[in-house]
Amino acid sequence: MRRPPLGLLGLVCVAASAGPAAGQQKAAGLPSPYLQNVFPAGAKAGTFVPLTANGNDLDGPTGLLFSHPGLVGVYEPPPPPPTPADPKKKPPVASPADAEKAATKGPHAFMVTVAANVPVGTYDVRVVNKWGVSNPRAFAVGDRPEVNEKEPNNDVPEAQRVELGTTVNGGIGSATDVDYTLFAAKAGQRVVLSCVSSSLDGRARPFVEVYAPDGRRLAGGRNYRDGDALADFVAPADGDYLARVSEFAYQAGTPDHVYRLTVAAGPWVDAVYPPVVEAGRPTAVTVYGRNLPGGKPSPYSADGRPLEQLAVTLTPPTDPAAAARLAFRDRVEPPVGLQDGFEYRLAGPAGPSNAVPVFFARGPVHVKKSAGGLTPATAEPVGVPCEVVGMVSRPNDRDWYAFEAKKGDVLVFDLQAERIGTKADYYLSVHDPKDANKDLTGEQDDETDSLHGANFPSRTVDPVAYKWTAPFDGPFVVQVGCREAGIHSGPRTAYRLRVGPPRPDFRVVALPYSRHLPTGSAARQGGTEAYDVFVHRIDGFTGAVTVAANGLPPGVSAKPVVVGPAAKWGVLALRIAPDAAPFTGGFTLTATADVDGKPATRDVRPAAVTWGTGQKSDVPMSVRLTQSLALAVRAEKAAFALAADADKATVKGADGKEAKAGSPLTVKQGEKLTVPLKATWFTPADAAAVTLTMERTGPENQSSPFTVAFPTAPTKEKPEGTLSVDAKPTAAPGRYSFAARGDAPVPFGRDPKAKATVPAAAYADPVEVLVIPTALAKVTATAGPLKPGAAGDLVVKVERLYDFPGEFTVALDAKGVTAADAKVPAGTSEVKLNVKVDPAAKPGTAAAGVVRVTATFAGHAVTHEVKVSVNVVK
Question: Is the pTM of this model over 0.85?
Answer without folding.
Answer: yes
